[in-house]
Amino acid sequence: MTPEGATAEPTVSAWAPLRTVVYRNLWLALLAANIGTWMQTVGAQWLLIHEPKASTLVALVQTASLLPVLLLALPSGALADTFDRRHLLISVQLFLVAVAVTLTLLTATGRMPPALLLTLTFAFGVGQALTLPAWAAVIPELVPREQLRAASALGSISVNVARAIGPAVAGVLIARLGVAPVFGLNAVAFLVFAFALVRWRPGNARAVEVPERFTAALRAGGRYVRHSPIVRRLLRRALVFVIPASILWALLPLVASRRLGMNSSGYGLLLAALGVGAIVGGLLLPWIRTRMTANQFLLLAGALYGMTLLVVASVRVVPVVLVALLPAGLAWVIVLANINAEIQLYLPGWVRARGLAVYQVVQGGGQAVGAFAWGVLADVAGLVTAFVAAGVLMLLGAVTSQIWPLPDLRGVNRDPATYWPRLELAHEPDPRVGPVLVVVTYTVRPERQQDFLDAMDLVRGSRQRTGAMRWGLFREGEAVDRFVEVYLVPSWDEHLRQHGGRLTGADQAAEERAGDLADCEPEVRHLLPAAAGPALSDDREAP
Q1: What is the DSSP string of 523-536?
Q2: Which of the chain's termini has less CB crowding within 10 Å, N or C?
Q3: pTM for this entry
Q4: pLDDT tens-digit profile of 222-280?
Q5: Alpha-carbon dihedral of residues 495, 500, 501, 506, nearest 10 degrees?
Q6: What distance in Å separates the CA atoms of residue 484 and residue 253, rounded to the nearest whole number?
Q7: What is the b/e burial string over 339-378, where b = at least 16 CB atoms within 10 angstroms of the residue's CB?
Q8: What does 201-255 look like in DSSP terms, one character per residue?
């Protein structure tokens, strides 16, 4: 049922975004880069398959590639929201080309010990951490808003077509030519994506008068996510799924070699089965969304993935495992593509890359930590025990979708709204001045005061998401109908950004609701530091 005030969403073809030429060209180039990345992953894992403590080392390939996302995604999101995203993406792809060339040459000359391999894999992860938020934030600039979910699904299809093709090609090349050519093709793939980015000429829609300072942008992004219950709920759902799901990507090469007796080509076949399932999931996602609620298919996807893990743990027949991997790939895309699209749709443009970076931290960090934990457990207790534990954890996580359901965002207005009045001050402060104390006084009749307090709770969230470090609502002791809202903003520049583009239609609706309950227009005052030095002090400081 559509929530009151919302409109039913039209069904959008899974292929609709590809009708946009710029998006199609970049998507195809990204597909080439994804194929190269999966070839590199298979090559790195296969180099370690016969090393002592192979379970831990093979799992560490995934950890090394994903740990930078955990460490760097939020700073890279701040960079993507602050600087030109196209230039950032081009620079990162050229860095990845250099790393891939280094990896190719050292492997071809036999100078690739496990520690160096993991170090260069970590460098690839750094490039991915810098790429993902910027690319995810670019997508809404390339396709219409109603096609964002389809574009997100196409992004997952790209990854999983690569997962189907890359490992299979890598397996054949490794068997015939060795690992070095696989790494060399990865360098070519990154070069293709860089060339496509160079050819792209975006418009000026995203031009910003004065970029945010990096540290201020970083804090603002963290503040937004911290004070957004909807974003936190979406991140929690992703984490509950990713941690047990990570075992399949981390330890599948050991399943192929130890339990199924397969070589590198066979491992590529297993990954291809996952990729085919994921492609089907991406194509079915628009159809599924019209027939099931988000929480219903979240429960179904978790159950399918959990059952796959239990089949992998208990069956040693190759065709059965291949068939079981198909629904796992489908479930992976259904869950993560949907959560990714919901976050893209919810986040306002000014903080989109930073919010998506936090999502990448949760997804990539969950995979990195999960991969390491499952690798250690497999070394200590065996592969079967590790997969059974992950399968049970996945099934339990699927049940929690009824406790922590995905929020319904169809009735939430996320369009930008510039509705605050023009500031008229006696003097123009320096943008760096701060902190700034904003005081808003309301007059509310006693019979409306409880409704007013409820409405102000939504206003509090809006203030904190868009810039307020502290917020409070007080009553005047000398009057029965006077309320005073105060909030502290780090700088005058930060407050100007609240006036100039950080607010959304949902913020406007919350403020208008509170304002309608007041007897007259609220009175707003801006208090600036009176002199150099701290504007606020406490009793621990000397007079």
Answers
A1: EEEEE--SSSS-S-
A2: C
A3: 0.73
A4: 888 889 888 898 998 889 999 999 898 888 888 888 888 887 678 778 877 887 887 78
A5: 80
A6: 62
A7: bbbbbbbbbbbbbbbbbbbbbbbbbbbbbbbbbbbbbebb
A8: ---STT--SSPPPHHHHHHHHHHHHHT-HHHHHHHHHHHHHHHHHHHHHHHHHHI
pLDDT in tens, 192-225: 999 988 888 776 544 444 567 778 888 888 888 8
Burial of 128 (0-12, 13-18, 19+ CB in 10 A): buried
In the predicted model, what is the mean pLDDT of residues 291-301? 81
Indicate the DSSP class of residue 257. Answer: I
CA distance 413 to 415: 6
Tokens, residue 89: 């993406």
Both tokens of 99, joined, read 């790393």
What span, in angstroms and rounded, lies between the C-alpha atoms of 492 and 489? Answer: 7
Whats the size of the chain, residue-wise? Answer: 543
Cβ atoms of 345 and 414 closer than 8 Å = yes
For 406, the token pair is: 């995905």
The token pair at 446 is 């006693």
Residue found under tokens 């320096």: 430
User: What is the rounded distance in angstroms from the CA atom of residue 327 to the CA atom of residue 310?
Assistant: 13
Find, among 520, 526, 358, the residue nearest to 445 by Cα.
520
CA dist 466 → 219, 500, 501 (Å): 11, 11, 10
Is 398 within 8 Å of 75 (Cβ atoms)?
A: no
Cα angle, residue 17 at apex, residues 411 and 19 outer, rounded to 5°: 140
Q: State yes or no: pLDDT of 456 exceeds 90.
A: yes
- pLDDT value at position 211? 65
Q: Of 85-99, 372-386, 420-434, which gets the smallest average pLDDT?
A: 420-434
